[in-house]
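testing teh design pipeline on a random one, pls ignore if ur not involved
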């Protein structure tokens, strides 16, 4: 009767050995890791071949890989012995290597069916069993001699490989001896060999970690090691489930089929729960790090994770700040307390995963005193923060956010981690470094918010200044109207002009009120094209000062600007030109069109301006040299033009007058970058 191996047990054994082989290969030893890794991988292939051909575990590919497996074990022991034994011991190992080579050659020869049949002696037994019995006997002898000849300093490094490989070889020795004596292979021993191989194979990886020359941080990602260990544990779990299922199948009772189905269904549920349970994953990761890595943290990965977390655009800033400190220590929740400038109390600024609204800490709180006293990270005990614990739950540590100018900017309180974590110097240094980064992030964000508020207030102040200047202009017009009314109130033409002026002033004031409600920039972005030449003619019509317009004969394109903004900007600059011109001197307005821009020159023949005045005072808000001026007109005109995509350039010299050159984008023209603001001198 031919032996039958359990495919489930050998499949689980293959998964376990392959995972340990990958783990050994990732220890960063280079060529030194190849023998142990190769032994695990070859053993995995052997187990997989038996799982695929359970009715012929000693023939074909399974038989060949079994011989290769034994040779790989011998290779690991001989290479290790060459490293740790003295010269006399190495000579003995060479003799063992020769004998083992002979045994391996004989075992390989018997894989050929014709040769095995020719060498079969009924009185002695199958040559397949005998040659493999000789081969595993050599493994046991080599393991025993390696352990016995190692000195006390090196024995600690060879004990696990000798026990692991020697123990597996000893079990195979029992298996083959039983087969040689009884003439049949025991199915129970055959299945037990798969279970034993899977259970003791981790000892080889542990031996790799214990060897001082192997103890290095793996060059591969810690995630690779973590997932490899997860795969190994899953394979071991499935191996155990397969063993239990095999035992149930051999009972032969009626209920065993239902029990086996229930066992596999329960195993599937356990696997899903284990994979999705973050606390279990955290404990596994912590165990792997503590036993296989010199450093507890991968600082490059932690730094990149911190930067990525703080730069996430979809999360609130408080949540990002908490997670940047909570994720490295695997804390599931946290709360952020911040102190406003000039305020001693720390108030709630945000929480993550647990509610904690309305919580605050006074400056006299013991936790605050500890952090201000120089403690880098304060470990909290139950009852230290009763109000917070009532709504938030248990609090583990308090991480200070120390700023170089503002002092203790805030505090991040973290919940206990999913897996126990000792607060050693490595953890404290990491939290301190990440705390500095979080502090700078929050401080810069607070500065940006203050700057935004100041910019908002500046925009409001600018609009009020513009409106006040325009109201002053309307008030001047109404004052002049009242002065003339004393002499011409009974003139029907004056009455008609007065009515038009009052109506226009009322419309102007309503427009100014509307401007207070809506910024000019918003209106400028949706401004339709206007006829600038027509607006100029309307504004200079009836002007007592002589004005001459050049370029009105040729049609001019429309410009992109609101009517109110264009009128305000042109009126300010035109009135300044009229005031600067001597009595009787013509103010010239020259219009010309380019491909993308319309240029309007307002030319006066006044005293002109110095370069220093143009640079330092002309466009400075609230600065003026006029007796009744406000220092807003020129500044407002330039701002309105720039908001529309245009600009104003000053061409002036003392004693030669001034030219205010307005440039505005033409409606429908290709977009271009606005010109750089400048004040050119001529």
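output:
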């Amino acid at each position: 009767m031919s032996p039958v191996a359990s495919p489930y047990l050998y499949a689980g054994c293959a998964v376990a050995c392959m995972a340990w082989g990958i783990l050994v290969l990732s220890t960063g030893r280079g060529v030194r890791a190849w023998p142990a890794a190769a032994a695990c991988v070859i053993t995995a292939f052997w187990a997989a071949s038996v799982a695929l051909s359970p009715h012929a575990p000693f023939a074909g590919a399974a038989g060949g890989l079994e011989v290769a497996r034994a040779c790989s074990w011998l290779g690991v022991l001989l290479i290790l012995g060459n490293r740790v034994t003295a010269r006399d011991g190495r000579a003995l190992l060479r003799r063992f290597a020769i004998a083992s080579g002979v045994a391996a050659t004989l075992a390989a020869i018997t894989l050929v069916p014709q040769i095995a049949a020719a060498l079969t002696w009924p009185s002695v037994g199958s040559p397949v069993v005998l040659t493999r019995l000789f081969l595993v006997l050599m493994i046991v002898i080599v393991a025993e001699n390696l352990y016995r000849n190692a000195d006390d300093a090196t024995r600690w490094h060879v004990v696990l490989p000798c026990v692991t490989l020697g123990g597996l070889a000893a079990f195979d020795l029992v298996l083959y001896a039983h087969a040689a004596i009884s003439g049949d292979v025991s199915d129970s021993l055959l299945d037990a060999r798969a279970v034993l191989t899977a259970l003791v194979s981790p000892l080889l990886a542990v031996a790799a970690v214990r060897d001082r020359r192997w103890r290095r941080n793996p060059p591969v990602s810690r995630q690779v090691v973590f997932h490899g260990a997860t795969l190994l544990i899953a394979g071991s779990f499935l191996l155990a489930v397969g063993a239990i299922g095999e035992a149930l199948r051999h009972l032969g009772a009626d209920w065993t089929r239902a029990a086996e189905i229930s066992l596999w269904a329960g195993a599937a549920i356990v696997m899903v729960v284990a994979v999705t349970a973050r606390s279990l994953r955290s404990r596994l990761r912590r165990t792997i790090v503590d036993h296989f890595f010199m450093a507890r943290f991968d600082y490059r990965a932690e730094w990149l994770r911190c930067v990525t977390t703080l730069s996430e655009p979809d999360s609130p800033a408080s949540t990002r700040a908490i997670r940047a400190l909570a994720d490295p220590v695997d804390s599931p929740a946290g709360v952020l307390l911040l102190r406003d400038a000039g305020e001693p109390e720390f108030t709630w600024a945000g929480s993550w995963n647990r509610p904690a609204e309305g919580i605050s800490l006074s400056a006299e709180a013991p936790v605050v005193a500890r952090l201000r006293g120089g403690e880098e990270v304060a470990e909290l005990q139950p009852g230290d923060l009763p109000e917070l614990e009532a709504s938030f739950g248990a609090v583990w540590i308090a991480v200070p956010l120390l700023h170089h100018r503002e002092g203790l900017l805030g505090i991040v309180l973290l919940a206990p981690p999913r897996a126990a974590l000792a607060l050693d110097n490595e953890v404290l240094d990491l939290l301190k470094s990440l705390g500095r980064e979080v502090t700078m992030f929050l401080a810069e964000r607070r500065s940006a918010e203050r700057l935004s508020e100041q910019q908002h207030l500046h925009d409001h102040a600018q609009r009020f200044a513009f409106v006040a200047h325009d109201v002053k202009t309307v008030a001047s017009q109404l004052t002049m109207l009242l002065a003339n009314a004393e002499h011409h109130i009974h003139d029907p033409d004056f009455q008609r002009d007065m009515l038009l002026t009052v109506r226009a002033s009322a419309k102007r004031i309503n427009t100014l009120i509307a401007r207070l409600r809506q910024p000019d920039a918003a209106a400028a972005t949706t401004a339709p094209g206007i006829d600038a030449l027509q607006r100029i003619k309307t504004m200079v019509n009836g002007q007592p000062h002589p004005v001459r317009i050049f370029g009105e004969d040729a049609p001019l394109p429309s410009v992109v600007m609101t009517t109110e903004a264009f009128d305000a900007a042109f009126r300010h600059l035109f009135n300044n030109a009229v005031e600067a011109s001597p009595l009787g001197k013509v103010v010239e307005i020259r219009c010309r069109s380019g491909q993308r821009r319309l240029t309007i020159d307002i030319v006066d023949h006044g005293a002109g301006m110095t370069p220093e005045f143009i640079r330092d005072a002309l466009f400075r808000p609230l600065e003026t040299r006029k007796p009744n001026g406000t220092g807003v007109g020129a500044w407002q005109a330039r701002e309105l033009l720039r908001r529309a995509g245009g600009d104003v350039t000053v061409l002036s010299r003392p004693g030669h007058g001034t030219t205010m050159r307005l440039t505005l984008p033409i409606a429908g023209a290709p977009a271009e970058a606005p010109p750089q603001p400048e004040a050119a001198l001529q």
